[in-house]
Design brief:
Layout (H helix, E strand, L loop, with lengths): L3 H8 L11 H8 L2 E2 L5 H10 L3 H9 L3 E5 L5 E5 L3 H7 L5 H9 L4 H14 L8 H8 L7 H6 L6 H11 L2 E5 L9 E5 L9 H13 L4 H8 L3 H7 L3 E4 L2 E4 L3 H6 L8 E3 L5 H4 L30 E5 L2 E9 L4 E6 L6 H18 L10 H13 L1
Antiparallel strand pairs: 1-3, 2-3, 4-5, 6-7, 8-9, 9-10, 10-11
Helix pairs in contact: 7-10, 11-13
């Protein structure tokens, strides 16, 4: 029987089959890279294609790949061919913020007027950061006081920017061109559009990226309702209690995993983990997490970045920027020669090109100290 985990790993291009591929091709084939101000987009591309940070940043600058609000309204780095689709499936996300603002006494018409004001002050060429935008539109931005701060809405400007981004009328420009930070300016743009059934296309892509998967997995990724998911599914075949595109069945049945270990160091929100949000299916043995009372199989998400061997989670890691080293824990013993080589390769990439491997925007060396200490003690 085909090893499901090895198949997922293979389909995700972690077996070396995408070595040297351009960033847009990698993301189109293996799925969008979740971006939360951390290193995941860079680590995802590096693990699959050996992409340098400079190559990734160049692809962003050329709009071959870009960070956009998409599935569930969350930001992902998408390939150019999926820009229209991503914006279409994420278009309704700002409605939640608008409902909050309505409860704070801000009508939708006020936000729409602010949106128009933002578009009017943005230059035809170039961009403005939030402070510059606020100054340019003047009193059209309303402060929402302490009550607004409690609800995460200190002024009306973020909601307007979110609505404009979801419509594809503006895009965020990373202040220093990097994907692992959250300082932006904003510029006008005219993105590609998507014509067709967006839900059906997203479902087709999803099962192509990470099938076999369940309908529940798709719904988690997409935020589709049960009825919507039922009507948008591509032609699927049940295998091992999950569903796989019919076109992949023969390849799936014939696939044989490498006999020797092949290691990857991934981010905790890599597509291999996050598309199904089910790290439990990738773990062979239940282990107590260092520095935590819970076992790995009783946690909803991984506490650290995973070490992967042909699709199995075999350990965890974090980066220590002070000592410029990866601190790792392998569940069943010490790293072998091949794993040490991958640890060294990834360490050099982070140290020389990224400087750090943050999990998300608020992650910092100081906040990471307890996890580093726990991994060292394992």
């Amino acid at each position: 029987m085909t090893d499901l985990r090895a198949w997922w790993w293979h389909r995700q291009g972690l077996d070396g089959s995408l070595r040297g591929a351009d960033p847009a091709a990698v993301l189109a084939k293996t799925g969008w890279a979740r971006s939360v101000g951390g290193a995941n987009p860079y680590l995802s591309l590096f693990a699959r294609a050996g992409t340098s940070r400079a190559q990734a940043d160049k692809a962003v600058e050329a709009l071959q790949i870009y960070e956009l609000p998409s599935a569930r309204g969350c930001t992902y780095v998408l390939p150019h061919e999926h820009f229209g689709l991503g914006l279409t499936v994420g278009r309704g996300a700002p409605e939640a913020d608008l409902r909050v603002l309505e409860k704070l006494g801000v009508p939708r018409t006020e936000i729409e007027q602010l949106c128009q004001a933002v578009l009017e002050v943005l230059p035809d060429n170039g961009s403005l950061d939030p402070a510059q935008l606020k100054a340019a539109v003047g009193d059209k931005v309303r402060s929402l006081g302490e009550e607004g701060k409690k609800k995460g809405q200190s002024t009306t400007l973020p909601a307007a920017l979110g609505l404009l981004q979801a419509k594809g009328q503006i895009r965020r420009v990373p202040s220093n061109g990097r994907l692992d930070q959250q300082r932006y300016s904003y510029t006008r743009w005219d993105p590609p559009t998507f014509d067709g059934d967006a839900a059906a296309e997203l479902a087709r892509l999803y099962f192509d990226w990470i099938g076999p998967a369940s309908v529940g997995h798709l719904r988690w990724f997409s935020a589709f309702s049960a009825g919507q998911a039922k009507t948008c599914l591509p032609e699927l075949v049940e295998v091992d209690g999950l569903f796989l595109p019919r076109a992949q069945v023969a390849e799936y049945e014939a696939y044989q995993a490498p006999r020797k270990p092949v290691y990857n160091l991934l981010a905790g929100i890599d597509a291999l983990i996050l598309l199904r949000r089910d790290h439990h299916s990738l773990v062979d043995v239940d282990v107590t997490v260092p520095g935590d009372k819970h076992s790995l199989l009783n946690m909803p998400d991984l506490p650290d970045h995973p070490i992967i061997d042909r699709g199995r989670v075999i350990g965890l890691w974090q980066y220590d920027p002070e000592h410029e080293q990866i601190v790792s824990w392998v569940f069943d013993g010490k790293p072998d020669k091949a794993l040490n080589a991958e640890l060294d390769r990834t360490t050099a990439f982070i140290r020389d090109e990224l400087g750090d491997a943050r999990s998300f925007s608020l992650d910092s060396p100081r906040s990471r100290e307890p996890r580093l200490a726990a991994l060292r003690s394992a």
